[in-house]
Design a protein that fits this description.
Elements (H helix, E strand, L loop, with lengths): L1 E3 L2 E5 L6 E4 L9 H14 L1 E4 L6 H9 L4 E2 L14 E5 L24 E8 L7 E5 H6 L3 H7 L3 E4 L12 H13 L4 E3 L1 E3 L6 E3 L6 E4 L4 H15 L5 E4 L6 E5 L3 E5 L8 E8 L7 H15 L3 H16 L1
Parallel strand pairs: 3-4
Antiparallel strand pairs: 1-2, 2-3, 4-15, 5-17, 6-17, 7-15, 7-17, 8-14, 8-16, 9-10, 9-13, 11-12
Helix pairs in contact: 7-8
Bound molecules: 2-oxoglutaric acid and fe (ii) ion.
2-oxoglutaric acid binds next to strand 7, strand 16 and strand 17.
């Protein structure tokens, strides 16, 4: 257990997941508490704050201390606070597709860095959310698979949200507009975590369409093999929500699945999402090393220029 000032962090899952207590959400976190929580998120990938009594404004203010909040382009959002997503489901209003493994919004060129979700109304049984460490999934692969996957790229798509625009011509026009606004991004299959430097499997059944440069059969076989890793119980951590439980997850290193086993009962969750950074592939890191080492073999005046451009490439 880590303790600093009044905050304590207790690891709960073997590969990911920790419980955090002692955070005062009624005021901004001190620099040292912010640092402690951020480090805890990087180390544990999923932080659970059990049964806290805060408003959505306090939840949003807490999130803003770790980055800018984003507005989801498809999910209906709150009129007063567009960064807030309310997931209020029951038998009449079932969830759209949160019971498919995913990292949030990888249909964006720059997907979120993290998500903060808080339970308001929970069913008596069911409605758990399962998280998987994609860092552990990568680490569990053999060297041969790790090498083979590094450098592959996959096309992502806002697949489940397409069904919101079925039907009349006006909806189809809107869909085309969304396709123009959110063209399918290409992300590395193995992502380099921008903070920890760890490698992460970054494909999901929810948003990944195909692996580039392969036949459909080849792409699907590899994706199926990678999706099976998400199902490995050892890589998972399960959250059983109580009213007030809040979870902050690192969206770059984990995936999640919201069990749909509580319908027709009601479950209401409130979410804010933090903007992320451009996805860097593990192969890009290797390419940078190759560029840097090539630069060292150049004549001195050329070396200086090459060093500067290498630096700019990695920080832009
Ligand atoms: O309802 C949940 O537990 C998770 C829903 C979800 O996928 C999300 O908020 O990103
Ligand atoms: Fe999600």
């Amino acid at each position: 257990m880590t303790k600093a000032s009044e905050i304590s962090i207790t690891r709960k899952g073997a590969h990911l997941g920790a419980e955090v207590s002692g955070v005062d959400f009624s005021k901004p976190q001190s620099n040292s508490n912010q640092h402690l929580l951020f480090e805890a998120l990087m180390e544990n990938e999923v932080l659970v704050f059990p049964e806290i009594d805060i408003t959505v404004e306090e939840q949003a203010a807490f999130g803003r201390q770790f980055g800018e909040l984003s507005v989801h382009p498809f999910s209906p959002h709150d009129a007063e606070m567009p960064e807030l997503i309310v997931l209020d489901n029951d038998g009449e209003r079932p969830p759209l597709a949160t019971d498919v493994w995913h990292s949030d919004e990888t249909f964006r060129e720059v997907p979120p860095m993290g998500t903060i979700l808080r339970a308001r109304i929970v069913p008596e049984v069911g409605g758990d959310t399962v998280f998987a460490s994609m860092t552990s999934a990568f680490e569990g692969l053999s060297d041969r698979w790790q090498c083979f996957l590094t450098g592959l790229e996959a096309v992502h798509d806002f697949k489940p949200f397409r069904r919101l625009y079925s039907g009349d011509p006006a909806s189809r026009d809107k869909l085309h507009a969304m396709e123009e606004q959110f063209p399918n991004p290409v992300h590395p299959v193995v992502r380099l975590h921008p903070v920890t430097g760890k490698k992460v499997v970054f494909v999901s059944p929810q948003f990944t369409q195909h692996i580039k440069g392969m036949t459909e059969g080849e792409s699907q076989s590899i994706l199926d093999m990678l999706y099976r890793l998400i199902d490995v119980p050892e890589y998972q951590f399960r959250v059983a929500w109580k009213p007030g439980t809040m979870v902050f997850w690192d969206n770059r290193s984990t995936q999640h699945y919201a069990a749909r086993d509580y319908l027709p009962h009601r479950r209401r969750m409130e979410r804010v999402t933090l903007k992320g950074d451009k996805v860097i592939g593990a192969a890009d890191e290797m390419a940078d090393l190759v560029t840097a080492s090539a630069a060292l073999n150049k004549k001195p005046e050329a070396r200086q220029q090459a060093d500067i451009s290498t630096y700019q490439d990695t920080t832009s």
